[in-house]
């Protein structure tokens, strides 16, 4: 069974900053049925511009006859705070003013995203979660949650993510926000505000999601006489328009700021100490040619998370490989689950060519 629901939180939701959001709503999808032991839960934390319908955007890994399927598991994916796919976000109505929040929406962090997942899990009565999985920003959320509630999460899969967002990643995000704010309509208090800037932001982001080799192979010009209208230029325009048609600049602005905030050591002894709080058996997957989240960041995670196994893969698609290389991910995650279920120790080093 595949259902979409909205959870309405009855109390003010306190953010890490101390500010509060009243009337928090969380849109989420569930697939399959919770078994009598309540131990077949798979929770998906989605990335920056995805939604709660994981069967739509992670096909091959999630779906009928896939590794994660509704016949065997009870799968939950919640739309994150700030996103425009149904959960409370900058375009939501602020009941204090009777108008949408826009830029009066409070800043929030990755830790707040994880706290919202906790609320929903409590609402669903899930005292234990068999496996939490996420890539990129989704991996940051999954990691924070595993630190906040080490006993609830039994297995953890972190893909192309890090323990602290890097200066490099923050610089990419700030460049995108500069593009958005250069569009004067961003300050116009309209749902379509900043759309031209968002188009540019997406173009910038794509350069970090893919690689030199990806563009060289997919956008190669066969006409050597061409001096304008290049395929790569058309591709950037097309992808920018695609995002504008399904997202909004305000959500993008706030979510990139939330990603920048990611630092598991904040208000804790250290990053290393925070990672050591994770009790879940963990698989960390890195992508060798990931420009945005270099593989050293995943190696650091595997080194400092107890009971962690590390796997690396080389993807033609760079960072976006975590969404595309579903055949390899199915194999490696499937092997991890089998070993985690049968052996107390899952520590190993494995490489995929």
UniProtKB/TrEMBL annotation:
EC number(s) on file: 2.3.1.31
Amino-acid positions noted as binding substrate in the UniProt annotation, renumbered to this chain: 202, 320
GO function term, MF aspect, one: homoserine O-acetyltransferase activity
SUPFAM superfamilies: alpha/beta-Hydrolases (SSF53474)
Catalytic activity: L-homoserine + acetyl-CoA = O-acetyl-L-homoserine + CoA
Pathway annotation from the record: Amino-acid biosynthesis; L-methionine biosynthesis via de novo pathway; O-acetyl-L-homoserine from L-homoserine: step 1/1
Record-level GO cellular component terms: cytoplasm
Subunit structure: Homodimer.
Name of this chain's protein: Homoserine O-acetyltransferase
């Amino acid at each position: 069974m595949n259902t979409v629901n909205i959870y309405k939180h009855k109390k003010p939701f306190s953010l890490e900053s101390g500010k509060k959001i009243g009337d928090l709503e969380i849109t989420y999808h569930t697939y399959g049925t919770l078994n009598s032991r309540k131990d077949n839960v798979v929770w998906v934390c989605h990335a920056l511009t995805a939604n709660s319908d994981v069967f739509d955007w992670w096909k091959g890994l999630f779906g009928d006859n896939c590794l994660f399927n509704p016949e065997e598991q009870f799968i939950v994916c919640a739309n994150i705070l700030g996103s425009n796919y149904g959960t409370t976000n900058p375009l939501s109505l602020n009941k204090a003013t009777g108008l949408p929040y826009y830029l009066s929406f409070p800043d929030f962090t990755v830790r707040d995203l994880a706290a919202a997942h906790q609320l929903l899990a409590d609402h669903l009565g899930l005292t234990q979660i068999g496996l939490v999985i996420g890539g990129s920003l989704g991996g940051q959320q999954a990691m924070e949650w595993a630190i906040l509630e080490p006993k609830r999460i039994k297995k953890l899969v972190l893909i192309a993510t890090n323990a602290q967002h890097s200066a490099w990643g923050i610089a990419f995000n700030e460049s995108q926000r500069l593009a958005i704010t250069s569009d004067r309509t961003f300050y116009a208090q309209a749902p379509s505000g900043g759309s031209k800037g968002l188009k540019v932001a997406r173009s910038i982001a794509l350069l970090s999601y893919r690689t030199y080799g990806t563009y060289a192979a997919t956008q190669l010009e066969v006409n050597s006489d061409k001096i304008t209208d290049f395929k790569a230029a058309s591709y950037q325009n097309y992808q920018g328009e695609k995002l504008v048609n399904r997202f909004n600049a305000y959500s993008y602005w706030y979510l990139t700021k939330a990603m920048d905030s990611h630092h598991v050591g904040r208000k804790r002894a250290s990053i290393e100490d925070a990672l050591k709080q994770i009790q879940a058996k963990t698989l960390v997957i890195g992508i060798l040619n990931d420009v945005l989240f270099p593989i050293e960041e995943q190696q650091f995670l595997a080194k400092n998370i107890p009971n962690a196994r590390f796997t690396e893969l080389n993807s033609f698609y760079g960072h976006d490989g975590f969404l595309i290389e579903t055949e390899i991910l199915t194999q490696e995650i499937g092997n991890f689950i089998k070993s985690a279920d049968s052996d107390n120790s899952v520590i190993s080093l494995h490489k995929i060519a």
